[in-house]
Specification:
The chain has 390 residues and is an alpha/beta fold. The chain is built from 16 helices and 14 strands. The structure holds pyridoxal-5'-phosphate (PLP).
């Protein structure tokens, strides 16, 4: 069984390695997250918002021309059609409802590319709750459109000016804030990373993706199980959601696609499953890119959402045990796939998602297979990058 245990471990990965002063917050969440999120009242509100606000169920689309090209059967799970353009909103809706039930009056988050910041600012506006998003100063420069979105949605964007002024520095600032405001503040983490119970809580909120796949595949193919599920992995939340209800179905192959940047061994990469070693990052024991003395290596990918030096503990476990196959895709391969998908199906994918499509060139399959690619997000935010390749 692939399931998190009481202490938050998937095999040897996970746990909660946190400063003593955060213990009360994490304990409060750990004690109640399952009971609260499974209550009928929570589920009713969560489901209603997913339907009427996010626009779920997201379609499962049979990509006819893409299937003909690859000589197999490819279905796209259209998370790109969600409100705000990606899967991240599934999680932030769940967490804002959780925060309300814990009596929290203030939300903090950290963001690198700004996508999680936007999804968080969105649900805070929806609920009328104060929102502070920490972001590295360098990222604020690089991701100006998302900074504007967050501000328009009423969030305060606070720059993290220490260290490399990127995601990990923003994370440090957010943790510092939480330590100083334990009573009234909830910290919304954006992927299946961080100390237990975050990875499991976020996976549960995202599991709506595979929950829908079960009945959508049954309806369209007569079988609720596909042969292969392909998803890109930054921290791993869209993949966790797409795999969730298939984790214990051994016949369903799980493919995790990482960013190889300029090449796995180029020094400019985010291919954690190949380059990562066991260690602790953001409060959990997992695979991460680190130097021999444990300093985090700055990751690189053309896609801001895959530019993360670790992977969530669930994925570390899935890859380490061979349950999931890891594939690495370079910037160039991903961009090529994005253009190909745009022209063969009329869908412009996010740069992150383009990596998942590129994996179709690397994995083996047969012509009768049913493959689901989780189309995690739309590419509007990446046009500035795509136009450089015109
Ligand atoms: C943030 C993001 C990702 C990466 O995050 P995961 O937690 O690994 O899913 C992937 N795709 C899109 C469109 C994103 O915005």
């Amino acid at each position: 069984m692939i399931e998190v245990n009481q202490r938050g471990y998937y095999g040897e990965f996970g746990g909660a390695f946190i400063p003593e002063m955060l213990h009360p917050n994490i304990e409060e969440l750990r004690k109640c997250y399952i009971e609260v999120s499974e209550s009928a009242e929570f589920q009713a509100e969560f489901r209603k918002l997913l339907k009427d606000y996010v626009g779920r169920p997201s379609p499962l689309y049979y990509a006819k021309r893409l299937s003909a090209h690859y000589n197999t059967n490819i279905y796209l799970k259209r998370e790109d059609l969600n409100h705000t353009g990606a899967h991240k909103i599934n999680n932030t809706i769940g967490q804002i409802l959780m925060a309300q039930r814990l009596g929290k009056k203030r939300i903090i988050a950290e963001t690198g590319a700004g996508q999680h910041g936007v999804a968080t600012a969105t649900v805070c506006a929806l609920m009328g709750i104060e929102c502070i998003v920490y972001m590295g100063s360098v990222d604020i420069e690089r991701q100006a459109p998302n900074v504007s979105r967050m501000k328009m949605l009423g969030a305060e964007v606070r720059p993290a000016t220490s260290g490399s002024q990127t995601l990990k520095d923003a994370t440090n600032e957010a943790i510092r804030d939480w330590i100083n405001n334990p009573e009234d503040t909830h910290y919304i983490i954006g992927s299946v990373v961080g100390p237990h119970p975050y990875p499991d809580m976020v996976a549960r909120f995202q599991s709506v993706i595979s929950e829908e796949m079960l009945w959508q595949l049954k309806e369209q193919t007569g079988n609720e199980d596909p042969d292969i599920i392909v998803a890109c992995v930054g921290g791993g939340s869209n993949a966790a959601g797409a795999y969730y209800h298939y984790l214990n179905k051994k016949d369903v192959r799980l493919v995790a696609v990482e960013a190889a940047g300029l090449g796995i061994h180029s020094g400019e990469s985010a291919a954690t499953s190949v380059l990562g070693t066991k260690g602790i990052i953001h409060g959990s024991r997992t695979l991460l890119m680190q130097t021999d003395d444990g300093q985090i290596i700055e990751p690189y990918s053309i896609s801001a959402g895959l530019d993360y030096p670790g992977i969530g503990p669930m994925h570390a476990h899935l890859i380490d045990t061979g349950r999931a196959e890891a594939v690495s895709i370079t910037d160039e391969e991903a961009v090529k796939s994005a253009f190909f998908l745009a022209r063969i199906e009329g869908i412009i994918p996010a740069l992150e998602t383009a990596h998942a499509f590129s994996a179709l060139d690397k994995i083996d399959y047969s012509k009768d297979d049913v493959i689901v690619v989780n189309l995690s997000g739309r590419g509007d935010k990446d046009l500035g990058t795509y136009v450089k390749y015109f």
